[in-house]
Fold this protein.
Amino acid sequence: MNMLNPILARLNKMPRAALITIGLFFALGTFAPWLAPQDPSTQNLLEAGLGPSAAHWLGTDHLGRDTFSRLIIAANTSLVSVGSVLGAAMTIGILLGTIAGYHRGWVDDLLMRVVDVGLSVPSLIISLAVIGIVGPGYWTMVLALALAWWPMSGRISRAVAVSIMSKPHIEALRVLGASPWRIYFGHLLPGTIGSVMVYATADAGTAALAVATLSFLGLGIQPPTPEWGQMLVDALPYLESDPRQVLLPGLALTAAVIGFNTLGESIALNRIPKPLTRRMLAIRRAEVASWSKENSDA
Amino acid sequence: MTQAPVLKVENLQTRFKSVQRDKYVHAVDDVSIELYPGEIVGLVGESGCGKSTLGRTIVGLEKASSGRVLLDGVDLSALSGAALRDSRRALQYVFQDPYSSLNDRQTVGETIDEALVIAGTRSPEERNRRTKELLDQVGLASAVSDRHTRELSGGQRQRVAIARSLAVNPRVLICDEPVSALDLSIRAQVMNLFLRLQKDLGVACLFIAHDLALVRQAASRVYVMYLGKIVEHGPSQELYDHPSHPYSQMLLASAPEVDPRIEKNRRGPLMIGEVPSPTNPPSGCRFRTRCPLAVDDCAKALPPSRVLSPGHTAACTFAGDLHRGKRSALLQQEVSAA
């Protein structure tokens, strides 16, 4: 219990509603296959477009698939894809960022100009370009989004790495004659990963939205895998006759994105140097807005 | 001194690019110093005079723009990569701030263990034994080993930092104001620790400080630095009793007195004016802009070092007169003020 107390105290300071939403999202996403009451892919055209009932708690879609099960499985799809996108993007970003922060000089200049280019092109355009070249598919989507995402984490990693490298305890290691490998892998990388992972939480909402957007456009997760953005597209023809089909996945997605954003911002504000966070949060808010605008335009 | 110096710094120069284009800050300008085995040498001067930069350049934390650092006769500037790291290990640095010089994520044991690993101690049992021994040497109980460094007090942290430096068996310890971040009550303890270690282990120690009393107590010789240059150097007793550079005289006289009655009757502010910018140092003697004795010739050329007594030199035209007490920068100041 003593071990838990600091964690509990920290959790208490976070926005409670966001914490519950994200907790639920993680729980549903992780245990989805066991939680879904019915097979999300079983079609039954005789029961198509039905409202909530004892058999289908949240009704069925246009092919008679159980909406509740599909929503839960979609949480799993979203969790896995967001996880792999951020995982891939953070890996590239942290590696290049720490290398730039370690070496400084021309290596730093070169890598940061590459980051600048990456940041100046809207991430949706980068993703669309990659998918346009490679063709739509699950792993293409992950790759495309990771390529669009890494510059941001690269920039943050570099800032964190530079501040760690200038600390006297790293200088002390250099005076002791520690090898560059020891300094990089033993001290710089672990320190950077910790801080940048915090930022990743703040980014998860945007990534979830991006996955949904690409799936909505038919460029991301392909049917029959349930996914929120794709469920929205499927339900779009019935928007006027049966708004329930559109509202439910829309609400689920909105809750997840708002939850991640609120939680991420509260964590980031506490853990990462203030001026940097402020700038990053402003950029990310604009980013979220641009993705959702894309969604409504499409 | 018949022994060969363990550390010899020859004409060392460190400059930084200034914010202004094509200008350089000459933090350390043509400095030569020597350290003999097992002695404590003080390096004093105002803040910003380059004494920390000199220390950092010697251990390689700053890049020297010219000059040489010889350790046991080996020119470190000729080495690079692993060979440089191995040779320079005999040269250790104790940081001013014991809070940032230790990694908060590590325990005391891990901190010292890592230094031992870096120094090439393979067997874990041997490292364990050495860790205990080192902690004992700096006066810490071996139970501290499992504590995180963030749980320790400033004095304890500085002891850990010293133990870490000693782990690699240094020949020279460069201490950059090692006690000025500590509480007054802890200072004496850590100072005594330094003196004891120097006596027991025979490590030579360059003691960078602005606390003149501390240096007088600890050091056998003293270098006085002003604006990137050594202006005076000599045995500490001799230098404290007969300071022979106007700057040293004023620096020593400006140290506050313990006795309030003496303190009250002291002559007014002794140091006049600001330290000139090291980007644009004065021509000739660098102290001339603040020196009460300055004459026109001081602006023309750098005054040569004058040997006043064995081992005591000062870079001032009037050093001889000042040393014999015929003139004084302090009296001169009163005359010019009147």
About this structure: The two ends of chain A are 51 Å apart (CA to CA). Chain A touches chain B at residues 167-169, 171-179, 182, 186-187, 190-191 (CB under 8 Å). Chain A has one domain: 73-297.
